[in-house]
Amino acid sequence: MSQTAKYLKDYRAPDYRIPEIRLRFDIHHDHTLVTAEYAVEPQSGAGDLRLHGSAELVGLMVNGRMLPETEYRLENEMLVVHRAPAQPFTFSVQTKLFPHQNTTLMGLYQSGGNLYTQCEPEGFRKITFHPDRPDVMSVYTTEIHADKARFPVLLANGNRIDGGDLPEGRHFAVWHDPFAKPSYLFALVAGDLACTRDRFTAADGREIALEFYTRAEDQSQVGFAIESLKHAMRWDETRFGLVYDLDIYMVVAVGDFNMGAMENKGLNIFNTKYVLADARTATDDDFDGVESVIAHEYFHNWTGNRVTCRDWFQLSLKEGLTVFRDQEFSADRSSRAVRRIRNTALLRRHQFPEDAGPMAHPVRPASYVEMNNFYTMTVYEKGAEVVRMYHTLLGEEGFQKGMKLYFQRHDGQAVTCDDFRAAMADANGIDLAQFALWYSQAGTPVLDVSGSLNGQGAYVLRIKQSIPPTPDMHDKQPMMMPVKIGLLDDTGAAVAFSLPNSGESVTEAVLLLTESEQEFVLEGVNVNVTPSLLRGFSAPVRLNFPYSDAQLALLLAHDSDPFARWEAGQTLFRRAVAANEQALTRQQDLPAHDALFDALAHVIRAEIDPALKAELLTVPAEEELWGSENIHPLNVHHAREALLNALAVRFQDDILAVNLQAKSAEENAAVPNPYDYYPEQAEWRTLRNVCRSLLLRANPQEQMEYVFEHYDEMAKNMTHEWGLLAAVNHVDDPRRDALLARFAEKFGEHALVLDKYFALIAGSRRDDTPAQVQAALQHPAFAPTNPNKVRALIGTFARNNRHFHAENGAGYRFVAEKVRETDALNPQTAAVLARTAFSVCQRLEPQRRALMTAELQQLAAWDALSKDTREIVEKILAG
Ligand code: B3K
Ligand code: ZN
């Protein structure tokens, strides 16, 4: 049962422009009536007007005349008005919605008694009939009528221009957004919400009202998000010269939401997870997430809203660029080096497998069945890497010139990734034609590098690039990419070199790779060197170089580039896990890992940034250690666990010392309250939590007992609580259960903390985890309609390799069943779950592959499966 795909190559400009839209929402207790009125401008004469829509149609008019059923037809969620006028006309349509029955959380839906919208990418058509494509941009005026007691707050995009009381206890508000926008940026909120107000003085002197809407009981947790917004607004002014354009900026927090947040013009709607934070209930990572998501959505105001996408294939135009911008914002706020490492780790853990699996697609996909399935790590994170490469190639100044030209040319338009690339090229007078391949070729490029002294005072690097075939494409062209490098001598000191015809002696250079095989001559090198390659992860590729363990240890100990340093350690870790795996399958003794452990001894004792130390001590995730085929997840799991256990035992005393150092650094910091969130405090706590989990491995019973006895005095804030519970979570001991139960009780009123409880249950390596997950499904706080809960419990379980990949297939069966149940309520959440869990199918060893395939086939055979989940399941089955 294959589905119809849309193709980038079929793009055609719209036949109708709609410069103006007036919407009226009449909210009643069990339904909402929506009247939409469009000023329509035909672009190619008379013809059929085709509008998407799935809402109940009440009636429609053209130029004020009710259309009889003979003049239009409604089929497959498409309204076709026969022979629409050739001259500009007004079109109005009335629809009836039932938001309380809408569990998809797209379109207009109800959550906690309030109404919210989510339109990106194609939710507007669930509200009314409309072309619902991003290149149809309109100025919106939105009028909302509702019962005043139940819906005291009525919000929509733009500025509030009117409002007042109506008979029968009702009231109304009118909002006008002067900036033309696509339908996906439309938003409306109606309900009983508390408003926290602040203000921001923009660089041009305008006063901007900031309004954050939450449940009244959550108001005390909104302060950090407001401060984050102000930081983001100031940063965009200083680094990019971009100033906010409306008089008001609103953020609304909602507990039922499909993703993190949504950048609707002037009226962002957020998952509570990315707005609410205080030290008692949020970890440092949560605070960091709030700051970066608040910033991300704010940055969209220019990169996404003022300049938007021509079609959904161009999604990365706004997402890749905006992720790059939020990454830079966070890096400018604190810990640039560590953030780069974390971004890279995220990409490798989640995007590399995507690029090597059944869902592989280029940064600009060439086709899709359900657009919601393409909000992927590739579009977002690899897209951000592509933008970062422009930045590396052009430098900050050249990149900013490109951004300036991009806004000069395209403000108010809906454009393509090619337009962005052209702005970068033209502003800098360079040719970026070859760079376009990053948008059309999927798959992670592989660089095979070798190097040697040429006996004539030069070190020669030879780089071969290849791009693996993906389901959509076999033969690929070499791409253009920056490769940042340096050289170290045998003591770890930097070695100077010069590039041919430059004469300038440097210790670092960006090589421009454009061919499938290329040689780079680094002159003036007469000593034995170790190359430091792909510094700063200058391109999103896999790089192979035949390093000896000793060379990796040298890089890990001495490289001046923190990324390259970390990467050397990661390679040593990967080698060690692979060696363990081999020993375990052959039932031999585990290897000693001398080179790795000697290098780690340096790391643990080094006086370096605590967060960097934490990263250097982190073994790559299991997903990163999986090969391209015949994966035995449990073998990898046991091999990695064995390495961690050995490391924990070997360095027990050092780790204790570091833990104490981190504790006193945290407690003695010169801040008003050391347990509040400050980036520097957070770094120490990150390191502490790494130590805690290692200490627990080395001595589970003793640590368990200690934590159990001293939990309350150790748990100074949620970061501590999380660190303690995450450490003891795997111990088969009733005290662990008691601690978790107390935790759930203590935070019984905090939905976001209960998500942590569910994640702990589902993430445990204990044997009884499947049974505990079953029990958690019955917990009063678990709700299959709430995406945060589904992700916390089922999503976490699907990443718990030890149990999800159980040999008897029980893990697969359980998750498939939950995918099916979730799909009936919320296709988007189900599809994400299916993709996370099952994309690995064809790479598994034959037995598990067969078990997983059987579950997927059963899902595919289910007629009612949504288009969303079906696209994922069928692509996985097709391999
Ligand atoms: N643009 C939204 C994502 C919409 C996802 C729709 N499935 C949030 C963001 O990336 O900023
Ligand atoms: Zn975004």
Automatic annotation (TrEMBL):
Residues annotated as domain Peptidase M1 alanyl aminopeptidase Ig-like fold: 443-544
A Pfam family it matches: DUF3458
Domain Peptidase M1 membrane alanine aminopeptidase, residue spans: 224-435
One GO BP annotation of this record: proteolysis
Residue ranges of every copy of the Aminopeptidase N-like N-terminal domain listed in the record: 88-185
Cofactor requirement: Zn(2+)
Alphabetical list of Gene3D superfamilies matching this protein: 2.60.40.1840, 3.30.2010.30, Neutral Protease Domain 2, Peptidase M1, alanyl aminopeptidase, C-terminal domain, tricorn interacting facor f3 domain
Keyword Repeat on entry: no
Annotated InterPro entries: Aminopeptidase_N-like_N, Aminopeptidase_N-like_N_sf, PepN_Ig-like_sf, Peptidase_M1, Peptidase_M1_dom, Peptidase_M1_pepN, Peptidase_M1_pepN_C, Peptidase_M1_pepN_C_sf
Domain spans labelled Peptidase M1 alanyl aminopeptidase C-terminal: 549-878
EC number: 3.4.11.2
GO MF annotations, alphabetized: alanyl aminopeptidase activity; metallopeptidase activity; zinc ion binding
Coiled-coil annotated residue ranges, if any: none
Sorted UniProt keywords: Aminopeptidase, Hydrolase, Metal-binding, Metalloprotease, Protease, Zinc
Catalytic activity: Release of an N-terminal amino acid, Xaa-|-Yaa- from a peptide, amide or arylamide. Xaa is preferably Ala, but may be most amino acids including Pro (slow action). When a terminal hydrophobic residue is followed by a prolyl residue, the two may be released as an intact Xaa-Pro dipeptide
Family the UniProt entry places it in: Belongs to the peptidase M1 family.
Entry function: Aminopeptidase N is involved in the degradation of intracellular peptides generated by protein breakdown during normal growth as well as in response to nutrient starvation.
PANTHER family: PUROMYCIN-SENSITIVE AMINOPEPTIDASE
Protein name: Aminopeptidase N
Organism of this sequence: Conchiformibius steedae
Taxonomic lineage of the native organism: Bacteria, Pseudomonadati, Pseudomonadota, Betaproteobacteria, Neisseriales
